[in-house]
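Re: the 251-residue chain
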Amino acid sequence: MTKIALVTGASRGLGKSTALNLAKKGVDVIVTYHRNAEEAKNVVAEIEQLGAKAIALQLDAADMKTFDGFVGQIQQSLQDRWQTDRFDFLVNNAGTGVYASFADTTEEDFDHLMNIHVKGVFFLTQKLLPFMNDGGRIVNLSSGLARFALPGYAAYGMMKGAIEVLTRYLAKELGARQIAVNTVAPGAIATDFSGGAVRDNPDINQFLASQTALGRVGLPDDIGGAIASLLSEDNKWVNAQRIEVSGGQSI
């Protein structure tokens, strides 16, 4: 039977790569996007070209007040597109970054990061659990910045540390339903994250490459492929783990 994955923030970057890599493995995908419906529509078209089914739904992963309405859309979409009321995989990928020193981080910055990276993940997962199949799996996105420290990412790094703790608690509590929960922690990746600094600034790119054992920064498919692999049947016994996908950064 075909599996169905829900990937948040899948209109671009790591989420898009994850969705496409899942489709290559025959997994259907529910894509969520924040603002850019056209990009999400293009991702759906690419997924369908790979032979899988897909839909795109708008979601503000930082606004808990919208979650009930979003879950209602999920229920309706599952019935309309797949004639089911359950899906199998949840990838909590949606996120944003704030680059600021500890001294300069504002309460507004802090609350925004908390809402999208911690509170949003906690309560969206909670609301979606009734619609996940037993034996399904959850992947939460963390960051190498929860292990090593770079100035300017104190708030972001601590939020991702919270996600790693949440992952272990979810794995413990959802074990009775045979739902495995893991964290994937990317290192430096060349995307538009944080204004595209890693991708577009040669000095930053070269510095981070020099700190990485494999000698380069990551690409979206390095992460999307790893997540798709983690959700394959080959890795169904992996549970409660933090898996860093960084090429050996800062070791």
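The mean pLDDT is 96.
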